[in-house]
């Protein structure tokens, strides 16, 4: 079992300590020292004020910020949570990902999602109704451009002739790709293209807002994992080679007054039995000091006991 943490910008407005170079470096270094395996950023280049006022959060550019974090760490994997793939041309994503993998000595994982904020799509000039098709084609293109010279591609949304994009990533055959989302379509894309699945807890109302399937319990998660394993078997792939990330609600949130490490550890046992290989952990974002304290505490009381 490994642990990943997203840079704790959970609100609007954000705490300004978190967006300085020093703040990013300190959070990343603290996560690495505590034993976390992954660190990343969210992706919201053009959120609406309405969404921010309704519980949304501000964000940094994930590729730029992960590059800075890479310079201040040596073992921490760089895992965005998540890149909204239809927002960007896949050749640009492939170049950014290859660069990040190179400068981090092979520590990049491309975690991606379809996206759900319609007005953000509009602001970026991307057809919201075409997002699934854009996502599917982009997954194919990125893998190909990372592994193929003189690449030609003819699709509905992207066309290219004779593309050779060097330098290639360090990771072989390419950086891992993780696909986010709770739907059967997300699991089908994992089986076809990816090395990881990133579902998330989503009660019915949240699922409707995020335009995904509800996932409210460990039993729901187990059903999804069983479905994914069936799809991987049908594709001739070993399910043991595919990571699954999830959150652990047992024991409360690190940094909160009622966090219980023993209960958190007990919850990990159930999730590991279900097939989860990575746990996404949230740190408080009200101040840099509180975030660092929570990361250190989690390293000592949870990671250090495994």
UniProtKB/TrEMBL annotation:
Signal peptide: none annotated. Residues 1-245 form the Luciferase-like domain. One of its GO terms (molecular function) is alkanesulfonate monooxygenase activity. InterPro entries: Lucif-like_OxRdtase_Rv2161c, Luciferase-like_dom, Luciferase-like_sf, SsuD_RutA_monooxygenase. It holds the Pfam family Bac_luciferase. One of its GO terms (biological process) is alkanesulfonate catabolic process. SUPFAM superfamilies: Bacterial luciferase-like. It comes from the Bacteria. Gene3D superfamilies: Luciferase-like domain (3.20.20.30). Keywords: Flavoprotein, FMN, Monooxygenase, Oxidoreductase. This is LLM class F420-dependent oxidoreductase. It comes from Mycolicibacterium iranicum.
């Amino acid at each position: 079992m490994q642990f990943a943490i997203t840079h704790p910008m959970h609100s609007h407005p954000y705490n300004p300590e978190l967006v300085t170079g020093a703040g990013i470096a300190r959070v990343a270094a603290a996560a690495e020292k505590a034993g976390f395996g992954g660190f990343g950023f969210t992706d919201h280049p053009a959120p609406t004020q309405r969404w921010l006022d309704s519980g949304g959060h501000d964000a940094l550019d994930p590729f730029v910020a992960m590059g800075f974090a890479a310079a201040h760490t040596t073992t921490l994997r760089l895992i965005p949570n998540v890149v909204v793939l239809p927002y960007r041309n896949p050749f640009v994503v492939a170049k950014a990902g290859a660069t990040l993998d190179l400068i981090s000595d092979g520590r990049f994982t491309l975690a991606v999602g379809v996206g759900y904020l319609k007005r953000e799509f509009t602001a970026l000039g991307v057809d919201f109704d075409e997002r699934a098709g854009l996502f599917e084609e982009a997954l194919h293109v990125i893998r190909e451009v990372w592994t193929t010279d003189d690449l030609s591609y003819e699709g509905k949304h992207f066309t290219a002739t004779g593309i050779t994009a060097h330098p290639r990533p360090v990771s072989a055959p390419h950086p891992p790709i993780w696909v986010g989302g709770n739907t059967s379509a997300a699991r089908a894309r994992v089986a076809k293209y990816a090395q990881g699945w990133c579902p998330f807890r989503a009660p019915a109302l949240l699922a409707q807002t995020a335009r995904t399937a509800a996932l409210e319990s460990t039993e729901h998660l187990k059903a999804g994992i069983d479905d994914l394993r069936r799809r991987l078997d049908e594709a001739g792939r070993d399910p043991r080679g595919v990571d699954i990330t999830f959150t652990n609600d047992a024991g409360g949130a690190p940094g909160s007054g009622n966090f219980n490490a023993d209960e958190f550890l007990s919850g990990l046992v159930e999730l590991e039995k279900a097939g989860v290989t990575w746990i996404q952990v949230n740190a408080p974002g009200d101040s840099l000091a509180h975030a660092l304290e929570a990361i250190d505490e989690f390293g000592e009381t949870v990671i250090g006991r495994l």
